[in-house]
């Protein structure tokens, strides 16, 4: 009994010492992917902040990590242009979790800057070194910074193509080694196409449904809340056509509008998450080659009211990394 009490105290005092999972995900040049089960994400962010050269533009629903706040303060002392937007407590949420560093690096995903997100909940972060992608996010940030919250910024945003082995990025501290195969040899990586969408009413729902309708083999998803009827119906239709559907949902997302029971009724393979805390992911994997991730839960609020973002990436290599996380959760 004393050992159990001792372990509980350690967990409360030093949560980062009890990461739940596996080794770090494989690396792809110009892109990093982190899961909260595998790595101390705040430490990685603080490292990026400390190496910033000119600007940090941050839009995040919640910010309560003292270490990150301190790092941002130090950046301001270095005369870095630090701008922060967070939620204002309105019925429509500023629900983003993105950061743009030096106009070159984009950090996004499901990760709020809170201790719970870092050390208890299941979250993902994707960091992409691309000035073109940064321009897309800077346009949204500028729109909000000027007070234009909840206004539609519709596509077209620039479609970004990452060429992992052609042009070294200008920030070596972000450059990851190429993805490696079983024998340590470089595994071939095709150009990675990335599309950007923002809410409200900026095309997120339409883009997700478009990818679902084109599914030929499988649809996997891990979502905190799932109430969007149109997206759910698109998945049901593909399931009825024989497409494999497998999903994990957070039990705290249960409501009269939750689509869990819709999927159960058609015998789709869905389950509640097992994490004592929260499954906070918001990602889809389609046909092992299309990844959709960001701050956007498939809900009506996310589509019509909130400030949200998604990335759609065409990359079997990236999908395989997220698939590993899905299987761990399963």
UniProtKB/TrEMBL annotation:
Q: Where are the transmembrane segments?
A: none
Q: What class of enzyme is it?
A: hydrolase
* GO biological process: one example: lipid catabolic process
Q: From the UniProt record, list the coiled-coil ranges.
A: none
Against InterPro entries, the record matches this protein to:
PLD-like_dom, PLD_domain, PLipase_D/transphosphatidylase
Q: What is its EC number?
A: 3.1.4.4
Q: Which residues are in the PLD phosphodiesterase domain?
A: 90-117, 275-302
* GO molecular function (one): phospholipase D activity
Q: Which UniProt keywords apply?
A: Hydrolase, Lipid degradation, Lipid metabolism
Q: Which domain of life is it from?
A: Bacteria
- Show the catalytic activity: a 1,2-diacyl-sn-glycero-3-phosphocholine + H2O = a 1,2-diacyl-sn-glycero-3-phosphate + choline + H(+)
**Similarity comment: family membership:** Belongs to the phospholipase D family.
> What name appears for this protein in its UniProt entry?
phospholipase D
């Amino acid at each position: 009994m004393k050992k159990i009490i001792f372990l509980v105290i350690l967990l409360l005092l030093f949560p980062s010492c009890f990461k739940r999972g596996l080794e770090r995900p494989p690396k792809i040049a110009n892109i990093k992917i982190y899961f909260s089960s595998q790595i101390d994400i705040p430490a990685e962010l603080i490292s990026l902040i400390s190496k910033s050269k000119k600007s940090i533009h941050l839009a995040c629903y919640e910010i309560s990590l003292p270490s990150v706040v301190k790092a941002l303060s130090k950046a301001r002392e270095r005369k870095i242009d630090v701008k922060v937007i967070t939620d204002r407590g309105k019925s429509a949420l500023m629900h983003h979790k993105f950061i743009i560093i030096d106009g070159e690096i984009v950090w996004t995903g499901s990760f709020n800057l809170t201790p719970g997100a870092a050390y208890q909940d299941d979250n993902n972060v994707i960091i992409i070194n691309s000035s073109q992608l940064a321009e897309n996010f800077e346009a949204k940030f500028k729109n909000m910074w000027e007070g234009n919250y909840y206004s539609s910024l519709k596509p077209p945003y620039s479609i970004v193509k990452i060429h992992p082995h052609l042009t070294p990025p200008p920030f070596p501290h972000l450059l990851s080694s190429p993805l490696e195969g079983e024998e340590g040899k470089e595994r071939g990586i095709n150009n990675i196409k990335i599309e950007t969408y923002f809410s409200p009413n900026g095309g997120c729902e339409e883009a997700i449904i478009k990818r679902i309708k084109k599914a030929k083999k499988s649809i996997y998803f891990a979502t905190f809340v799932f109430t969007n009827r149109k997206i759910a119906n698109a998945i049901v239709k593909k399931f009825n056509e024989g497409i494999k559907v497998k999903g994990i949902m957070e039990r705290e997302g249960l409501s009269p509008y939750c689509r869990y029971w819709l999927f159960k009724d058609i015998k789709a393979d869905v389950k509640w998450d097992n994490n004592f805390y929260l499954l906070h992911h918001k990602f889809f994997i389609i046909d092992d080659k299309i990844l959709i991730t960001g701050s956007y839960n498939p809900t009506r609020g996310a589509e019509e009211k909130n400030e949200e973002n998604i990335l759609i990436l065409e990359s079997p290599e990236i999908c395989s990394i997220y698939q590993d996380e899905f299987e761990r959760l399963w």
